[in-house]
Amino acid sequence: MAPENPVYSEIKGKEKTLSDTVDKIFLNSGFQEYKTFKTENGKDKHINLSVGNQTSFDIDKLFSYENVLIICELTVKEEVEHRKNKNLEVEAILADRTAFLNQAKMFFGYTGNGFNYSRIIIKYLYFWEDGTIEKTERGKCPNIYFIDPQVRDYFLAISSAIKKSFRFELFRRLGISKGQVGNSGQGDETSSVDASIVTDESVNGLVQAGNEWHGKKYDPSHS
């Protein structure tokens, strides 16, 4: 058997690390994960969806908490055409939420957690490893939240430390208010959504600007 291409091996290693990191962030925070692929002949294969004018696309990760549904795109090397395609896909999803949610139920087992489709809040997060996305380029994709590698590392560190409480910080940064999550008035479970858990922006180096976060590389010694 021929030896595996070292470049390919490096890419696959980065893909697995990125996937594991995103899983940890959301599972630490109390989200439920849904399998977005099927296994054929011992290999995982993504399931193709069709919504609106986007007739064949897949999603990498799907997580939910109450009526909040998070779609995650994971890519090792950020590329312009790939990002443009993802922007078209999320536009189609938001334009025909019912079609997307029906397919999420059919293929992934997502049932809405007992909430009417009109209550489901859909957010699309874009994680990547290599490359830079300029602010002007991000502005062309207003429905995508771009999670820079350093911000991803911050998310992992904080969610590992404070576990389920981190979802309140995530909701706040995604523009989701306390009254939008679950059945408002049901006790403490959503009482902290409007208040930031991380109170000193200068410590974690993060700046929120519309649908992006950016900042200095997270230094755990300053947390």
* Spatial shape: globular
Total domain units: 1
The level-1 CATH class: Alpha Beta
List the helices and strands in order: HEEEEEEEHHEHEHHHEE
Report how far the terminal alpha carbons are from each other. Answer: 48 Å
Q: What is the fold-level CATH name, i.e. the topology?
A: Restriction Endonuclease
Whole-angstrom Rg: 18 Å
Biggest sheet record: 7 strands, mixed
Structural class: alpha/beta
Tell me the number of helical segments per DSSP (H or I, 4 or more residues long): 7
- DSSP strand count: 11
Which residues form runs of ≥5 with pLDDT under 50?
185-195, 199-210, 214-223
Strand content: 15-25%
**Average pLDDT rating:** 82
User: Strand order within the widest sheet?
Assistant: 1-6-7-8-9-11-10
Fraction of residues in helix: 25-40%
CATH architecture: 3-Layer(aba) Sandwich
Key terms for this structure?
223 residues; alpha/beta; Restriction Endonuclease; seven-stranded mixed beta sheet; 7 helices; 11 strands; 36% helix; disordered C terminus
Brief overview, please?
The chain is an alpha/beta fold. The chain has helices at residues 6-28, 80-95, 97-108, 135-138, 149-162, 166-173, 201-204, and strands at residues 32-34, 37-40, 43-46, 49-51, 54-57, 61-65, 68-77, 121-130, 144-147, 206-209, 212-215. It has one domain (6-222): Restriction Endonuclease (3-Layer(aba) Sandwich), CATH 3.40.91.
